[in-house]
Amino acid sequence: MLDKVNERGRPIHKNQLIFHGGDQFQSVYAIRSGAVKSFCTSDDGTEQVTGFYLAGEIFGWDGIDNNTHSNSSVALETVALCEIPFAQFEQISQNMPILQKHPMRLTAKEITTD
Fold it and tell me: Does pTM surpass 0.90?
């Protein structure tokens, strides 16, 4: 079902940004292969890693709250991604309960980590 809504683009190469903090939130991203790092940059230019994502994981949720990404994400190696427009993700998650649980698991993980 996800294959019908995702947008497969060209490969993302090592050190290429996928999205930048401050970009408008429109999609989440499923990793088919490769690895991605999410990070934020402080006012003094210090980079703080906020997550690592591998094949099979979905990332990019940081923009849900205010429709703007708070983190940046970069490919750590050549990455194959599926971009899933969030509006469509919400629609299909109604028919796939496992997708509804994923954001809740991420929230629980963040609470536990904090």
Answer: no
